[in-house]
Design brief:
Keywords: Membrane, Transmembrane, Transmembrane helix. The protein is α+β, with helices and mostly antiparallel strands and 370 residues long. Helices cover 47% and strands 14% of the residues.
Length: 370
């Protein structure tokens, strides 16, 4: 009886967790691809440069691996080819456990991206999660006799469910790539007040770990006694820290960040001019022309890029993008919006609109949000 209950618990938890993890990643396949690129870069330095060969295929791997998680989770729950599915799940989990241990022990990738931007886990939390999964899968392998098929034709029905899951999972990932994520968990989502998120929500409190005569002591104020040796400082209320710490915009004349939060601004974000979608600028330019003719309310267009000025000057002339441009960090721009190019509408620093280049809005849609 105990083994049966343990089996059912492990069956439900493992299946549900893989489905949830896969769906979260499929919600934002570009974000998952960025995380994969980070792993490939780390491994290329630590093991072999051959891992760099996988970087161009990160997006395809993102959709494939994320879909595979959902498919295997569903297959487990409907008990389709149970033995094969359990061994594949075990193999994947062993691999993920190695990745998270390596990241945690050597402090290589500080966020594994296991649950995308929805749930942030520290490297050691990710490793602990994978260890628990391993234990549950070993329990399932040892007690799989308690998971018999649902009936005579259950494998056909289960196979059909798995097939539908394959189609829906891949379709979900492809659609999310061609548009923005279905659910936006990032700090720059619609409704976010960027300048407010750049400030702490409450005064930050700190604790100082000091050492004296071989003994460690903690203080909430920095001790004035010079005999103490500083060890480390910890934030006591990290939940009140700024949610955005790296958003900076500048040009050759200086910082432009605060000016960006004044009035209505339409940001045309170009992460990388070499990887952008140039054909989409015909629609973007039509929108800009329409906004220039309809000045009520007034909208000021601004381009943000991580390219250098010479590179971007050539590019914007090629696509006829006649707007002032400023610079920002490439990683920050990819966090702001996954689309390249992408559009972000700010009203006094508040994000009121966000569009992929496949969903360029009309003038009326932009003005309705202001």
């Amino acid at each position: 009886m105990v083994l049966r209950l343990l089996n059912r618990f492990a069956w439900l938890v493992v299946g549900a967790l893989f489905i949830f993890s896969g769906l979260i990643k499929l919600n934002d396949p570009v974000g998952t691809a960025i995380k994969l690129e980070e792993y490939f870069t780390v491994f290329s330095k630590d093991f072999s440069s051959i891992f760099l060969a996988f970087v161009p295929y990160a997006l395809y791997l993102s959709i494939f691996l994320s879909s595979l998680e959902v498919i295997l989770g569903v297959a487990l729950l409907v008990r389709w080819r149970l033995k094969l599915v359990l061994w594949v799940l075990l193999g994947l989990t062993v691999f993920f456990t190695f990745l998270t241990f390596y990241s945690a022990y050597f402090n290589k990738v500080t966020d594994c991206g296991c649950f995308g931007d929805a749930i942030k886990l520290t490297p050691w939390e990710s490793f602990s999660k994978d260890v628990i999964l391993l234990v549950l899968l070993l329990i399932l392998l040892a007690t799989q006799r308690f998971l018999p098929p649902f009936g005579r034709n259950s494998q056909k029905t289960a196979g059909l469910v798995v097939l539908v899951t394959v189609i829906l999972s891949v379709g979900m990932g492809v659609y999310a790539y061609q548009h923005e994520p279905y659910l936006d968990f990032r700090a720059y989502k619609v409704g976010a007040n960027i300048p407010a998120l750049m400030k702490p929500s409450a005064p930050l409190r700190y604790e100082y770990l000091m050492e004296k005569d071989g003994k460690e002591e903690r203080f909430t104020t920095y001790p004035t006694d010079p005999s103490y040796t500083f060890k480390k400082m910890e934030t006591l209320n990290p939940e009140d820290a700024p949610k955005i710490t790296d958003f900076n915009v500048w040009n050759d004349q200086g910082d432009f960040t605060q000016e960006l939060f004044v009035g209505n601004r339409l940001l045309i974000v170009v992460h990388d001019v070499k990887k952008t979608h140039p054909k989409s600028f015909s629609e973007i330019n039509s929108l800009l022309a329409g906004l220039e003719k309809n000045q009520t309310p007034q909208v000021t267009p601004v381009a943000l890029t991580s390219a250098n000025s010479q590179e971007f000057d050539v590019f914007r002339h090629d696509v006829n993008l006649a707007v002032p441009y400023y610079f920002a960090d490439a990683t920050v721009l990819k966090t702001v919006i996954r689309s390249n190019p992408g559009l972000l509408l700010l009203k006094n620093g508040v994000v009121v609109g966000k569009w992929h280049y496949n969903d360029v809005p009309t003038v009326q849609q932009v003005q309705a949000l202001l």
